[in-house]
Amino acid sequence: MASTYLKRAQGRVEFLVRYVLGAPFYFVLFALVRAAWLFPPLKRQMLLQMEEIFKKVAPGVYKTDEDYQQLFYELTSFASWRGRISAQVLNMEAEVFPGGKATDSSLVRLDGSSCRLLQFARAARPLVISFGSNT
What's the angle, vertex CA 31, arms to CA 61 and CA 50, rounded to 5? Predict the structure, then answer.
């Protein structure tokens, strides 16, 4: 149980360092990179580097310079930063460790009403969640 608390504390410290203390650094970096984008030689160099990286990570997804330019603006936008913070907070709250308690996530039923995950749990009976598609 102590290791569960230690892992959660480690995740919170990582979040604090990366997103709270590191925010000014990232905003300055994003501003400098966007300013460098205004100079054609630097812009071309950045596009070539992005192309090299993303051909390994996501082959065939980005095909033209316009695709990379769109990706560049998405990666260096405030909305992107806010989305990363939101996702990180959700991941911290939803993190489950062996032997730890399951999170009581909110669910939406097919009729639109809401319920909680642990409402389906019963004593002495495991709750199995299967993710898949019925299509």
Answer: 25
SS (H, E, C) 74-116: HHCCHHHHHHHHHHHHHHHHHCCCCCCCCCCCEEECCCCCEEE
End-to-end CA distance of the chain: 40
Residues contacting residue 59 through CB under 8 Å, at least 6 positions apart: none
C-alpha 80/C-alpha 77 separation (Å) is: 5
Domain extent listing, the chain: 2-103
Q: What share of the chain is helix, strand, coil (3-state, %, to 5)?
A: 60, 5, 30
pLDDT tens-digit series, residues 76-93: 887 887 887 777 777 766
Q: DSSP state, 117?
A: G
Beta-carbon contacts of residue 88 (< 8 Å; ≥ 6 apart): 15, 18, 19
Model pLDDT, residue 135: 63
pTM of the model: 0.47
Q: Is the Cα dihedral 73, 74, 75, 80 positive or negative? A: positive
